[in-house]
Write a structure and sequence with these properties.
The structure is a single chain. This protein is 22% helix and 28% strand. The radius of gyration is 30 Å and the shape is elongated. It is of the alpha+beta class. It folds into 4 domains: 166 residues, Molybdenum Cofactor Biosythetic Enzyme, Chain A (3-Layer(aba) Sandwich); 50 residues, Alpha-Beta Complex (Molybdopterin biosynthesis moea protein, domain 2); 82 residues, Molybdopterin biosynthesis moeA protein, domain 3, CATH 2.170.190.11; 72 residues, Beta-clip, CATH 2.40.340.
Length: 406
């Protein structure tokens, strides 16, 4: 831990550890009613037990008949009417059946002529256009074949996924148990919104940031009271968190200040595997164990907490829930800004994509939440990189972290 770890290596190490942690949580699966399963992670592949549609049916309103009779000018007698949900009788030779959209084809029929291509007088139908075998028919199993895997384990379920599962007759599905995350914010200066600020105090915005972002991932979040800036208080808070959570997440206290007690507390109670990552904002990031419980310490500055969350904590939490973290979505756009001073670490600047390229938010301080609100991307500048107007730069859209994983 002598030097700072590169972001890519930190991400790789966190993801590898999360896969090991997932193996310990495999037994923590549960059957969930479909109507309650949106947003949860599939624990098992889902295999279709039926064909969808279960039998060949008509894709249009028209007339069902044998292809041999579907000649231009043919005149056929209508022998039955078949609506969706009704049971058809076998088709008499040389006749046709009035059929509605979604109705199953009768035995003996292999073609549907749409009603617009027919003239009907009484029980007689004249074909104004020839048809071929299979026209306007949805074959059995066209959408889903019995025995096929319709959804794979690790998928975060969306509304359309639930509809697909319902279409094969399922009422419940096996999902991973929600990830339990204990969140602690350290610092004597923190005050909850609604309280009056005293000199030197600030409102605890990180509580709301992390709780909401973790909830968007489907995690169950328990927020513990702000921890006093003492080693004893920090150790006790971490002990309690380790007893009730799958992951401990802290903000603040992981730097090298006189009141930063998280690092020594983790080292006293477990181990610290990562401390300091070569990125800006967000260098003071820590990862390790409190006992056997994974610990991730985010910086206390709100923007630093946000950036390290999306780059490092989110993939860890996704994998621990049974979903594989997707590769980062990175574009190249023309810079509508210049940066003449090279940085010593990789920087992730808050920007906004435009038709002409990408601009930077005017406020890039690690404590300025307004830069996150006003941004739709992170502009990734590597250590030592300078930028002139028009230079192609790497851009990571923020929407990729807020989209459901598929």
């Amino acid at each position: 831990m002598a030097g700072m770890l590169a972001v890519a290596e930190a991400r790789e190490r966190l993801c590898a550890d999360a896969r090991l942690q997932l193996q310990k949580r495999v037994a923590a699966t549960q059957m969930m009613p479909l109507l309650q399963a949106c947003g949860r992670i599939l624990a098992q592949d889902v295999v279709a037990g039926i064909n969808v549609p279960p039998a060949a049916n008509s894709a249009m309103d028209g007339y069902a008949l044998a292809a041999a009779d579907a000649r231009l000018g043919a005149v056929l007698t209508v022998s039955q009417r078949i609506g969706a949900g009704s049971v058809a009788q076998p088709l008499a030779a040389g006749t046709c059946a009035r059929i509605l959209t979604g109705a199953e084809l009768p035995a003996g029929a292999d073609t549907v002529v749409i009603q617009e291509n027919c003239d009907r007088t009484g029980d007689q139908v004249t074909l104004n256009q020839a048809a071929e075998r299979g026209d306007n028919i949805r074959p059995q199993g066209q959408d889903i074949a019995a025995g096929s895997v319709v959804l794979e384990a690790g998928r975060r379920l969306r509304a359309q996924d639930l509809a697909l599962l319902a279409s094969i007759g399922l009422t419940e599905v096996a999902v991973h148990a929600p990830l339990k995350v204990a969140v602690l914010a350290t610092g004597d200066e923190l005050v909850e919104p609604g309280e009056a600020l005293k000199p030197g105090q600030i409102y605890n915005s990180n509580r709301y940031l992390l709780t909401a972002m973790l909830a968007e991932l489907g995690a169950e979040v328990e927020y513990l009271p702000a921890v006093a800036d003492t080693l004893a208080a920090t150790c006790e808070a971490l002990r309690q968190a380790a007893k009730r959570a799958d992951i401990i997440v802290t903000t603040g206290g992981v730097s090298v200040g006189d009141a930063d007690f998280v690092k020594p507390a983790v080292e006293a109670l477990g181990q610290l595997d990562i401390w300091r990552v070569a990125l800006k904002p967000g260098k003071p990031l820590a990862f390790g164990r409190v006992g056997e419980t994974p610990f991730i310490g985010l910086p206390g500055n709100p923007v630093s907490a946000f950036v390290t969350f999306v780059l490092l904590l989110e993939p860890y939490a996704q994998i621990m829930q049974g979903a594989e973290a997707a590769d980062l979505e990175i574009y190249t756009l023309a810079a509508n800004f210049s940066r003449n001073k090279p940085g010593g670490r990789d920087e992730y600047l808050r920007g906004r994509m435009t038709d002409e390229g990408v601009t930077l938010h005017p406020q890039q301080s690690s404590g300025a939440l307004s830069s996150v609100i006003g941004a739709d991307c992170l502009v990734w500048l590597k250590a030592g990189e300078t930028v002139e107007h028009g230079t192609l730069v790497r851009v990571l859209p923020l929407r990729q972290w807020r989209a459901a994983q598929a």
